Amino acid sequence: MTSPTPDALLGPADVRELAAALGVRPTKQRGQNFVIDANTVRRIVRTAEVRPDDTVVEVGPGLGSLTLALLEVADRVTAVEIDDVLAAALPATIAARMPGRADRFALVHSDAMHVTELPGPAPTALVANLPYNVAVPVLLHMLESFPSIERTLVMVQSEVADRLAAAPGSKVYGVPSVKANWYAEVKRAGAIGRNVFWPAPNVDSGLVSLVRRTEPLKTTASRREVFAVVDAAFAQRRKTLRAALAGWAGSAAAAEAALVAAGVSPQARGESLTVEEFARIAEHKERTA
């Protein structure tokens, strides 16, 4: 393995020069905030526990700050980039700054929400700085599409990080919390200051670690069936589950029967239930509907 040069990572001046050369202005529409601090991207790679044998998939590499830090450690990195200009420029940046690792890098020019296969070996880790407006759907899509991903570390808006890592009973526990927990053990893994980005966002960022369950959730219900219950429960989160699940079950009485059969109080609310309890409710729909 060829060691990268000490200045291979992008600093503030490098990021601005690259952006200027490409005519790139970070857009709010895509939630683009480029990381300009080499220590931060190295910290992300450490926190993600990236190993020398990992094949890492990165979503939204932008100008390549995190990509280069990942290439310092991982065996391979595949980056998924939707932006035409950024996607076209990234391979040249990698080749110029880390020539000894360029053959370990692959680019997929696509919307991550439409990616269902990747070149090369199956990814073992997902590390990404995700725009807040698409963070949750992209994360869930990648976890569903690539079961080989064992470890995930995403940088997201702090509020989104709280929601993803929330436990039952928390005020911010909701659909993202339950669905992420279907796939993985989820926890907050740190905070990131605003000054490491260009432009500096007006929100704080947080790191979320997701370690995939070694055994899938034990349930006879499919993921879609469980997620349908979750969506229904939180669509009207102030209502009791008996009322909130009436449409899903066909009637309030059918919802109550499914809840009782699953050992869940019909008077409970969605925010108090674990993903296992949602799965039990899904299992009891057909015999009661």
Automatic annotation (TrEMBL):
Stated role: Specifically dimethylates two adjacent adenosines (A1518 and A1519) in the loop of a conserved hairpin near the 3'-end of 16S rRNA in the 30S particle. May play a critical role in biogenesis of 30S subunits.
Entry's family note: Belongs to the class I-like SAM-binding methyltransferase superfamily. rRNA adenine N(6)-methyltransferase family. RsmA subfamily.
Domain of life of the source: Bacteria
One Pfam family here: RrnaAD
Protein name: Ribosomal RNA small subunit methyltransferase A
Keywords tagged on the record: Cytoplasm, Methyltransferase, RNA-binding, rRNA processing, S-adenosyl-L-methionine, Transferase
GO molecular function, one term: RNA binding
Positions annotated to bind S-adenosyl-L-methionine: 33, 35, 60, 81, 111, 129
Localization annotation: Cytoplasm
Catalysed reactions, as listed in the record: adenosine(1518)/adenosine(1519) in 16S rRNA + 4 S-adenosyl-L-methionine = N(6)-dimethyladenosine(1518)/N(6)-dimethyladenosine(1519) in 16S rRNA + 4 S-adenosyl-L-homocysteine + 4 H(+)
Enzyme class: transferase
PROSITE patterns found in the cross-reference section: RRNA_A_DIMETH, SAM_RNA_A_N6_MT
Main location: cytoplasm
